[in-house]
Amino acid sequence: MSADLTELYQQVILDHNRRPRNRGKLPTANRVAHGDNPSCGDQCSVYLRLDGDRIAEITFDGSGCAISQASASLMTTQLKGKTTADAQKLYDEFHTIVTTGQAPEEISDLGAFAGVHAFPARIKCATLGWHAALNAIKGDPADATTETHKD
Amino acid sequence: MLDVNKIRADFPILHQQVNGHPLVYLDNGATAQKPRRVIDALVHYYERDNSNVHRGLHALSMRATDAYEGARARIAKFINAADPAEVIFTRGTTESINLVAHSWGHAHLKPGDVVLTTEIEHHSNLIPWQQAARASGATLKYVPFLGGDAEGGLDLAALDTLLTPQVKLFAFTHISNTLGTINPAAELCRRARAVGAVTVIDAAQSVGHMPLDVRALGCDFLAFSGHKMCGPTGIGVLYGRRALLDKLAPDETGGGIVVSVTYEGATWKPAPERFEAGTPNVADAIALGAACDYLDSIGRDQIAAHDAVLAQVAMEKLSTLPGIRIIGPRTGAARSGLVSFAFEGVHAHDIVTFADEDGVALRGGHHCNQPLMRKLGLTSTTRASFYLYNTEQEIDALVATLRRTLKFFIG
Predict the structure, then answer these.
(1) ipTM over the 0.90 cut-off
(2) In B109-172, which residue ranges form alpha helices assigned H by DSSP?
(3) Residue B205: how many CB atoms within 10 A of its CB?
(4) What is the pLDDT of residues B68-84, one digit of tens each?
(5) Is A20 on the interface with B (CB under 8 A)?
(6) Least confident of B105-119, B249-263, B289-303
(7) Which residues of A touch B357 (CB under 8 A)?
(8) Is domain A3-141 classified as CATH 3.90.1010.10?
(9) How far apart are the C-alpha atoms of B310 and B105, rounded to whole Å?
């Protein structure tokens, strides 16, 4: 297996793909948004309970490749308890990681996605759940699609 | 039997390494590779004959016109059309089907009419009919497909109830790009004709893979793309029966399609010019003619037999993989040279990424078949699609890379 592929499918990604965290609908959600990647059919719905500007609870549901599912799963563990401003900041950092491969040391498990940058076709997989989450935070009723976002 | 080694020597692109492995190209359902003869036809045209057609009186324009119209006649022969004027050049299958949906649909469809298609169509033979039905007030109905061992075969019993005199048009695929089903196209045309319906065949997956005779099929329209039959991208064909074409208005208008123009209006040339507004794609049309020459020099009956053997071998070898679900017709049913499959717990995109590491090119996704995927209870499949230059050793490479991928994800 090549170094690039080992880097893409890190243990943490495989773990979240096999045992997704916070998966399923959230009955108490007050925000929900859906994301689609029309080029491959991946789907991701994100459910939030916003308490003021704090993400009190967050879950996801959907289907797709290991990268998209693990990314959404890991995202929920990172966003829970954060403010909406923190969420945007984390996404910006995540976007830098998956597009450049450069991960700041203090970024925790999100750094596992640095390998994605070597596979440009897979960047959309990694960011699908994040787009849905940001739309849910904004209360944007439009479905998130990877075709209208840059990545 | 095809001399596959000799054939492979005709395709320059096959002789390369991808990620350190010899390229195993199994994505022919998406696009086929080009033989030297087709590439040479493009180079020759641009180096020697490039000029606009039908307008110039100089030597190059006459050469270009002769080659362009020669390609039309060559393609007419390739599908056994009665007249080269029945061959309209388009950008591909999608544009061909849209041309019928717009021009024919606009002139003929009205509320109360039924447009019939099937549940296994590619989006390009589905959405144009949804749009035509919506614009005209006609109803769109679908021939269901069967499950079980006949999975992907059309429910021909249901066709009896669906084919009523209200059906004005029946559009169906010759070969399903996802399931590999070969539909009984001649029978479908015959039954549609019996109720007076016009027939449209999507031949994108068939025309380069098996002998095809539009008169034996008895279809009214037939659409295909050049690039899936060893020709260039950006060129395709709409075949239409002359009697229908002569009564049809153009969809796109502009230069090259008119007899006379006044400030008040225009009168149309006959087919095919009527449907080819603007400067046509001369170079790619000529190269598509060269692709017809190439495929006929091999023999499409031989190619069909080769495809069928590879599909059979692939299904046998793939079925040894744990947890595999092979999609589409299995024993006995007519099947083309493509095999789609899915694994519980491993997504098609991860499989395609791993296969690419081993130099194996596959397609993973919904194959422009979203409603069909939903009916199959899947979101995506992986597809291996074969052509004249593929070998049984390449199927072994496919199975090896899949085994490695399964071990990684499932253990």
Answers:
(1) no
(2) 127-136, 156-162
(3) 29
(4) 999 999 999 999 999 99
(5) no
(6) B249-263
(7) 1-2, 5
(8) yes
(9) 40
